[in-house]
Amino acid sequence: MNYYTVLKSELGPITVQANNEGLLGIWFEQHTTCPDVLGEHNPSHPMLKQAENELREYFAGERQAFTLPLAAIGTEFQRKVWKALCEIPYGEAISYQELAHRVGNPKAVRAVGTANGKNPLSIVVPCHRVVGKDGKLSGYAGGVERKLRLLNLESDNR
């Protein structure tokens, strides 16, 4: 069974979905990848309460790494990219090309970008830490303005 809640944040409402195994998704209100059916609304579910606490600490500058178990569904390649995203240090950014190198497929820059864009776990799996080769902000499903705010939050709290 899946459960969800909607949290208030500095970046607007965030929908958080989990099951008993872990976190399934975190979406901003304009995300097009948020599923139509989220499950049972249950803000007191232990996984959702942990997500709420960790996200609150993150936004307060008190948390640099998340400890939530992750249960996002994706292809093997997507999961490999998402794992590599989790290894980007807090407050740092890398290029899509560098991310492709890190997953062992330097020519798969577009595929890495696509997998990054399908990341269902915004913030916790920090796809906002990936920027264009020239350092420009691009391609964030939560909106480039949110990406900039997340990067600034992290650089201010390092």
From TrEMBL:
Relay the record's extra comment. This enzyme catalyzes only one turnover and therefore is not strictly catalytic. According to one definition, an enzyme is a biocatalyst that acts repeatedly and over many reaction cycles.
Q: NCBIfam families attached here?
A: ogt
One Gene Ontology term of the molecular function aspect: methylated-DNA-[protein]-cysteine S-methyltransferase activity
The protein's annotated catalytic reaction(s) are: a 6-O-methyl-2'-deoxyguanosine in DNA + L-cysteinyl-[protein] = S-methyl-L-cysteinyl-[protein] + a 2'-deoxyguanosine in DNA; a 4-O-methyl-thymidine in DNA + L-cysteinyl-[protein] = a thymidine in DNA + S-methyl-L-cysteinyl-[protein]
Give the enzyme's EC designation: 2.1.1.63
**Per the UniProt entry, what are the Gene Ontology biological process annotations, in alphabetical order?**
DNA alkylation repair; methylation
Function as written in the Swiss-Prot or TrEMBL entry? Involved in the cellular defense against the biological effects of O6-methylguanine (O6-MeG) and O4-methylthymine (O4-MeT) in DNA. Repairs the methylated nucleobase in DNA by stoichiometrically transferring the methyl group to a cysteine residue in the enzyme. This is a suicide reaction: the enzyme is irreversibly inactivated.
Q: Which residues form the Methylguanine DNA methyltransferase ribonuclease-like domain?
A: 3-71
What family does this chain come from, according to its entry?
Answer: Belongs to the MGMT family.
List the record's Gene Ontology CC terms alphabetically.
Answer: cytoplasm
Arranged from A to Z, the UniProt key words for this protein are:
Cytoplasm, DNA damage, DNA repair, Methyltransferase, Transferase
Q: Give the annotated active site.
A: C127
Q: Where in the cell is it found?
A: Cytoplasm
Q: Which SUPFAM superfamilies does this chain map to? A: Methylated DNA-protein cysteine methyltransferase domain (SSF53155), Methylated DNA-protein cysteine methyltransferase, C-terminal domain (SSF46767)
All residue ranges annotated as the Methylated-DNA-[protein]-cysteine S-methyltransferase DNA binding domain in the record: 76-155
This chain belongs to the protein called: Methylated-DNA--protein-cysteine methyltransferase
